[in-house]
Amino acid sequence: MSLEDLRQDRDNLLFIEVHIPNLNLFALASIALSEVAFGLQGKEEAMSIQAYILIQTEVGKASSVAKAVSAIAGVTLSEGVTGPYDVIMRAEAPSMEEFGRVILSKVQAVAGITRTLTCPVTY
Length: 123
Prior knowledge:
alpha+beta; Alpha-Beta Plaits; four-stranded antiparallel beta sheet; 4 helices
């Protein structure tokens, strides 16, 4: 990995942090590390970033939140669940930047969501 690659990763993380203030930075670091570990840098066409996002909602909002996030481009699964989270979704995008800009920013804007936890898929 070159110095330029590291600078680009830093720039991508800063872009996402500025544009999605509630995003879990540990999740972003995990996404970035999985890109580097699995050699995805520069190969976004062949591979994609995939993650499960666990969502807590306001009382009585799980169904509407699940329906709203399922309409977001890149979301491949959205279901209501029981337990500490109310909705689980799976999404994918061609790159970490796209994942943050296209998917996570739209998920964070859905009415009724109180908290999210992003869990990147590693293999």
